[in-house]
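Our preliminary data section would be incomplete without showing what the modeling component actually yields. Below, a chain of 196 amino acids is followed by its predicted structure, encoded as C-alpha cells that our downstream tools consume directly.
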Amino acid sequence: MNNENKNAEQFDEDNGSKKISRSVFEWLEEFVIAVSVIVILLSFIVRIVTVSGSSMEPNYYHNDRLIITAHGGEIKEGDVIVVVDALNEPIIKRVVATEGQTVDLDPETGIVYVNGVARDESKYGIENGITFIHPNALDPLEFPLTVPENHIFVLGDNREVSNDSRYGEIGLIDERKVLGKAIFNIYPFDKIGLAK
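Predicted structure:
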C-alpha cells in the first residue's frame, strides 16, 4: 500500500472519529439544555403534585398526580387549586366563591348558594345537595358569609369527608396561600388530560 492510500485511510479514520466525537458532544449539549429547561419549568412555572386523601373524590383520588401552575391567571369559581393550610400542608380543593361573593349553605337541602343562586355542581361530576355541616364539627363557620378581599371559599368534592372552608380549621383561604391552579392530570394514565 502506498503512502497516499495510507494517508487517505488515516484521514478518513480521523474524520470519522471527529464526527462521532462532535455528534456525541452535540447530543450531550442538547440533553443538558433540555434537562435545564425542564428544571426551570418545574421550579418556577409548573409543579407536579400528588393528591393525598379522599376529599376530592370522585374527581381526584389518593396518589393521583397533576400539574399545577401559579401563573394560571385569575382564580375563579370551579378552579381546582392547591393551597397551604394552617398546618403548612398542601391540600387540594375546589373554589366555590371569590372575594365579595356571599356563600350560603341550606341546612335542609344541602345546596350551596353563591350570591343567592344555587350552584350546579353536576358540571364537576358531583351531586347537588350534598353540602352539610357535620353535626360533630368543632368549629363550623356561620352562614351566610361574605368572602373578604383577597380570600376565597373552597370545598372538597367529597363533602362528607372534606375539611374545607365550612370549618374554622381551614376557613376562608388567603389568596397568598394558593400554590397553584390545577391545569393537567398526568396520573393515572387513563385520566390524562386537562384538569376539570
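The longest strand covers residues 178-187. The chain has a mean pLDDT of 85. Preliminary results of this kind motivate Aim 1 of the renewal.
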